[in-house]
Amino acid sequence: MAGRYSARILVVFLGIALLFIVVSKNAFAHCDTLDGPVVQTARMALAEGDVTPLLKWVQVADEKEIRSAFQKTLAVRTKGAEVKELADMYFFETLVRVHRTGEGAPYTGLKPGEAVDPAVALADQALESGTVDKLVGVLTNAMANGIRQRFQQASETKKHADESVAAGREFVEAYVVFTHYVEGLHANIKGGGAHHSE
User: Fold this and answer.
1) For labeling, which of 46, 86, 131, 188 is most exposed (least CB within 10 Å)?
2) Contact in structure between 107 and 32 (CB atoms under 8 Å)
């Protein structure tokens, strides 16, 4: 019973760790997207004229800059549709830049919503729905498939590793890929992951 429980915990932790491995660099810049949570919060804040919900996305030291940009944006966005669009985009760019800088990450501009990695979209859905089961399932399956594929390649090439130098090198290449993959998974489990990791 305890072994089964431990195995489930390990699977959950491996699934979470995989999030930090399979997610591309763009996904770590999820907050850089027009459909990301920072810009979505900004859209609502501008519509309601209240900057307060945005302040959680920035450091205390950056509040003044965001409050100022917010007020400037509100002041000009009433001057027509084109001006509103430009003002909003100016504010989104400012907010996301300040947010990314506050977490020590580079800012490379806003990206379209489709730049969001599917795993990150599932993470957002999990928070909205209040259940993480689908995310854990998807990531656990992806991790298991990644391990199995690399193991299969290493295992097959090992059978022929001593037949020739070329075959031996093929095995070593597959072995390195397999062990580095597993090592990377384990390192992420032990160390977690930063939002702005590369």
Assistant:
1) 131
2) yes
d(CA 110, CA 35): 10
pLDDT at 114: 62
What is the mean predicted confidence (pLDDT) over 145-163?
A: 94
Contact call for residues 113 and 35 (beta carbons, < 8 A): yes
Model confidence band, residue 14 (pLDDT cutoffs 50, 70, 90): very low
Structure tokens at 142: 């992806």
83 contact partners, CB below 8 Å, separation of at least 6:
76, 77
Per-residue pLDDT, 121: 78
Half-sphere exposure (Cβ direction) of 17: Cα atoms closer than 13 Å? 20
> Using CA atoms, how far apart are residues 80 and 66, in angstroms rounded to an integer?
23
